[in-house]
Amino acid sequence: MDYLYLFIGFVILLYSGNLLVKGGVALSSHFKISTLVVGVTVVAFGTSAPELFVSLGAALHGSPDIAIGNVIGSNIANIALVLGFTAILMPLPVRSNSIKFDWPFMMGASLLFYVFILNQKLEYYEGIVFVILLIVFMVWTVWKSRKENRDLIIGFKTAEHSIFVAVLLILAASVGLYFGADILVGSAKNIALDFGVSERVVGLTLVAFGTSVPELATSAVAAYKKEMDISIGNIIGSNIFNILGVLGVTSIIKNIFISQPIISFDILIMLGVSFLLFLLILPLNNGKLHRWKGFLLLAVYLIYVYLVFTK
């Protein structure tokens, strides 16, 4: 039955990802903000809902390696797997905003996360710092986009849905993403544990992959619909939310203890993959994630998974 649930989870996530893109694009048209901003905020937070519920539940149930591994593994998968796979499907143009503000903020949050866990735990006051930074990021991103587009009428599509319908689509998609991920993660975890692997490995690979499927579904659908800004914005925003939102809220509720292998290996891979993304989206203007870069990212992810299972 676990294999059937695995398939059902994938189907729910794919359908929900489509709804989330539709709602996000409609909102960007109504509020005259770019689809990049919608991707970095609304869509990214919606697709990160599974990570929040999975990490919080794992921490409360005494599985810190799954709680922390889920976020680190998901951030690695978002860049190396999701962006890699999406770029293979369709090369992605990169807006300068992704480099000049969003990527540095993501990298800064990742480095701060590394500094915070050097003592092998993430405490409540560090979680408060994370949440405050997340609020600052959201407010600044939306304000900046509104200011830049205040007098810009041409270039925005007519919204296909009203604001009410767009919000309903996003809410329905978020619920679908949560339940789809829950079904997929539960079945994947059962299958993995049957093979006798550790919680760290389960959290970093299967659970992280399961909670990254919403990003994969949403980014792939967005690329297919030619909404390229949502594809890349979704990934960068999701990684920011995973660290500042998911771990911020979780550590405020309960301190998270981190095992040494995660500090000495997995988070360093996350930082390395994040920096690799920066190199691949250069130059600052007219950058592009070509198909060969997608294959490179995908290869990096497969090597990482192999190392996690064999170390």
Automatic annotation (TrEMBL):
Biological classification of the source: Bacteria, Pseudomonadati, Bacteroidota, Bacteroidia, Marinilabiliales
Name of the protein this chain belongs to: Calcium/sodium antiporter
Entry-linked Pfam families: Na_Ca_ex (PF01699)
Alphabetic keyword roster: Membrane, Transmembrane, Transmembrane helix
Keyword S-adenosyl-L-methionine: no
Ranges that cross the membrane: 6-25, 37-60, 66-89, 101-118, 124-143, 163-181, 201-224, 236-257, 263-282, 294-309
A GO MF term: calcium channel activity
Keyword Magnesium on entry: no
Membrane topology, record value: Multi-pass membrane protein
Ranges where the Sodium/calcium exchanger membrane region domain occurs: 3-143, 166-309
InterPro entries: K/Na/Ca-exchanger, NaCa_Exmemb, NCX_ion-bd_dom_sf
One Gene Ontology CC term in the entry: plasma membrane
GO biological process annotation, one example: intracellular calcium ion homeostasis
Location within or outside the cell: Membrane
